[in-house]
Design goal:
Blueprint lengths: L17 H11 L7 E4 L9 H13 L7 E6 L9 H13 L8 E3 L4 H13 L3 E4 L3 H7 L17 H12 L9 E4 L14 E5 L13 E3 L1 H11 L4 E5 L6 H9 L9 E5 L2 E3 L6 H9 L14 H7 L3 H11 L6 E3 L1 H15 L1 E3 L5 E6 L8 E6 L9 E6 L2 E5 L19 E4 L3 E10 L5 E8 L17 E2 L1 E3 L3 E9 L25 E10 L10 E4 L3 E5 L9 E6 L4 H7 L1
Parallel strand pairs: 1-2, 2-3, 8-9, 10-11, 12-24, 13-19, 17-20, 22-26
Antiparallel strand pairs: 4-5, 5-6, 6-7, 13-16, 14-15, 16-21, 17-18, 18-19, 22-23, 24-25, 25-26
Bound molecules: adenosine-5'-triphosphate (ATP) and magnesium ion (MG).
């Protein structure tokens, strides 16, 4: 059963979004009839929550205007790093986020013929040439911010010579590094991206999903604007690092023969979140270095990891809307995301009791065959979700942490002679403690007050402590994984002399193998979310089975890091 309820008093007001404003203005001025956007991931890793921001933004913009849509374009122009498993993961993640491109799934590699034709046309117009300088010479002659570039000695080759050489490149008759195709723009341009940028380079080894054996591969700056134009994209939304590439983007679009549209590039700030890294390269380092289990490890900021951790897609969406779209990079407080997640889980997760580190309790005044059933609400705020039954019997489990041999001041939980409330059931007094040979308490012998059914004493005596518990009768053993933040530093990337790997949190995963959970939970499907009362929100792991149930802690009930920070 799943408890799903709308929440109260939620603040969904999104921060202002300058891109939405640009689009709304264009639509109301009739400069535009429909909006066409695209999300263009490179299939060289799993998507992370930064990508989620870009996905939600692109799909939200394509909700404006009549006949608008958003394409998914897999930017597979760099075959060395790419893999079909990433293509599948990307599609699965986007679908889970609730953004459906439908039939509009494209591959940049499908445009290789059209791109090549466009390149030939630029050569014919005298706007591109084959450069035979070595890669080092090209780099050297490009100049830098202070130094103008130098024209290549091959810059003024004739059109026919260029066409012959381009053909030779394509057919693999030239070696890697022997030649490149460059746009002929201006070697003295202030913007380095405009200094005769590369369009194609020779790459022989890489097999490609097109099946065709291309010996040359287009550069991103050339392939991307053209792919946008081929698909009729109106707004090409990308992150700020592409701002300086915009003039080149426009140059390629401008010089394309009869484009369907002239897409407009608009940049926005990338999402950064504290205590994690949002860069595929660094995520690769975590996976390949064995610092996490895989791309979908629940500690990873990948969409697959967050899904496995128990995140709700609507929490990610609301978070992305809440933080808005900015023009300036910043680091978003992870507490904002976690707060939103807790709110959503509070509304969605049914309550149950589980004991993570069990301490045996024998209730000596209950006979072995006696059973008492108590009805407790499935959700404290939503009565309409009904009741669940918990069974009290002679043998029960409580949390080791809820017992203290020599209690500190204001200890309201179990200790020798102390009375506590078993949540939803009764009052219970600790009469005797059994120790092992090391003096460790291994069993509490207690007695219950049969008059206190439900948890209140008929004489009205005050019992402050209420503990979660589970009877042997109701329970089954489970593995529980307690996840914490992956890094101990809010900005693991900000330290010049050290790697993000130096700030990994050694306690980001604790695995408990003999927890006690309600036996009915073992049958729940992967992804099922519950609140273990007093402990946090958990979900059934994807590798969980009825015989060996596994639960992942999505998040604790309260922000324990905020307390630490205060101290
Ligand atoms: P990374 O820097 O993690 O390797 P990337 O930019 O190389 O990511 P792409 O697959 O090229 O990854 O990204 C696809 C789209 O997602 C791009 O349009 C990019 O601008 C956007 N994107 C990537 N990272 C973020 C982020 N942190 N916040 C917002 N958008 C992002
Ligand atoms: Mg990129």
């Amino acid at each position: 059963m799943s408890a799903t309820k709308p929440e109260k008093n939620r603040d969904d007001s999104a921060a202002p979004n300058f891109i939405a404003d640009i689009i709304d203005d264009a639509l109301s001025a009739n400069e535009l009839t429909r909006v066409v956007t695209r999300f263009p991931p490179e299939p060289n890793g799993f998507l992370h929550v930064g990508h989620a921001k870009a996905i939600f933004l692109n799909f939200a913009m394509a909700d404006k205007g009549q006949g608008s849509f958003c394409n998914l374009r897999l930017d597979d122009t760099n075959p060395e790093a790419e893999d079909d498993k990433y293509v599948r993961a990307i599609q699965e993640d986007i679908e889970w986020l609730g953004c459906d491109p439908g039939e509009r799934v494209y591959f940049a590699s499908n445009y290789f013929d059209k791109l090549y034709a466009a390149a030939v046309s630029l050569v014919e117009k005298g706007l591109a040439y084959v450069d035979s300088q070595s890669p080092e010479e090209i780099r050297e002659n490009r100049g830098n911010f202070y130094k103008e570039g130098l024209d290549s000695p091959y810059r003024n080759r004739s059109v026919s010579e260029n066409l012959d050489l381009l053909q030779a490149m394509r057919e693999g008759r030239l070696d890697e590094g022997a030649a490149v195709l460059r746009a002929k723009i201006d070697m003295r341009h202030k913007n380095l991206n405009m200094r005769d940028p590369l369009m194609y380079r020779i790459r022989k080894a890489a097999p490609h999903r097109t099946g065709e054996t291309w010996k040359i591969y287009p550069m991103y700056d050339f392939a991307h604007p053209l792919s946008d134009a081929f698909e009729g994209i109106t707004h090409s939304l990308c992150t700020l690092e592409f701002e300086a590439h915009r003039p080149l983007y426009e140059w390629f679009v401008e010089n394309l023969d009869s484009p369907d549209t002239k897409p407009r590039q608009i940049e926005f700030a990338r999402l950064n979140i504290g205590y994690t890294v949002l860069s595929k390269r660094k995520l690769h380092e975590l996976v390949e270095g064995g610092h996490v289990e895989d791309w979908d490890d629940p500690r990873m900021p990948t969409i697959a990891g967050m899904r496995r951790r128990g995140y709700l897609p609507e929490s990610l969406q609301a978070f992305c809307e809440r933080i808005g779209v900015a023009k300036k990079d910043s680091v978003v407080d992870v507490a904002l995301l976690e707060h939103r997640l807790r709110e959503d889980l509070n509304a969605h997760a049914q309550r149950t009791m589980a004991v993570l580190r069990p301490l045996k309790v024998t209730i000596t005044n209950i006979a072995p065959e006696e059973r008492y059933e108590f009805e407790v609400p499935v959700h404290p705020e939503y009565e309409e979700l009904g009741k669940r039954t918990v069974t009290l019997s002679r043998d029960i489990w409580v949390e080791q942490d809820d017992y203290m041999e020599v209690p500190i001041k204001k200890w309201f939980r179990l200790a020798p002679g102390k009375e506590v409330r078993l949540r939803g059931a009764c009052l219970l007094t600790c009469d005797e403690v059994i120790h092992d040979e090391n003096g460790q308490a291994i069993e509490l012998r207690c007695s219950w007050d049969p008059e206190s059914k439900g948890g209140t004493a008929p004489d009205g005596r005050r019992v402050k402590g209420t503990l979660h518990w589970i009877s042997e009768e109701d329970s089954t053993s489970a593995t529980v994984r307690l996840y914490d933040r992956l890094y101990t530093e809010e900005e693991p990337n900000s330290h010049e002399d050290s790697s993000h790997l130096d700030f990994l949190n050694p306690d980001s995963l604790e695995t408990i193998t003999e927890a006690k959970v309600h036996k009915e939970l073992a049958a729940e499907a992967p992804g099922h979310r519950v609140q273990f009362e007093r402990l946090g929100y958990f979900c059934v792991d994807q590798s969980s089975t009825q015989d060996e149930p596994i639960f992942n802690r999505t998040i604790g009930l309260r922000d324990s890091w905020a307390k630490l920070a205060k101290k």
